[in-house]
Design goal:
The chain has helices at residues 3-17, 21-31, 37-65, 68-92. By secondary structure, the protein is mainly α. Helix 2 (21-31) packs antiparallel against helix 3 (37-65).
Length: 93
Amino acid sequence: MDLKTMAVIFGTVFLAELGDKTQLATVLFASNRENSIVGVFLAASAALVSASAVAVAAGNLLAHAVNTRYLAMVAGIGFIAIGVWTFWSAMRG
């Protein structure tokens, strides 16, 4: 894999993770003075790496069973639907 592809994947996942419920949960754990910030970082990092491993394995399996063009279309429709729902919810107050 070339550096440009890695940078695109990193940027996309990094931006997708900003402000999501996973990050908010991590902020909550880190704000608890009884928790070690190093421990919170290590546990959250391990969880994200594990979740990414599951996603990579699932994507690899799906790619052998389903045309990747269809997977990309379903993912795109899903992102659009989430965006429309988020926008609609914000507009309703």
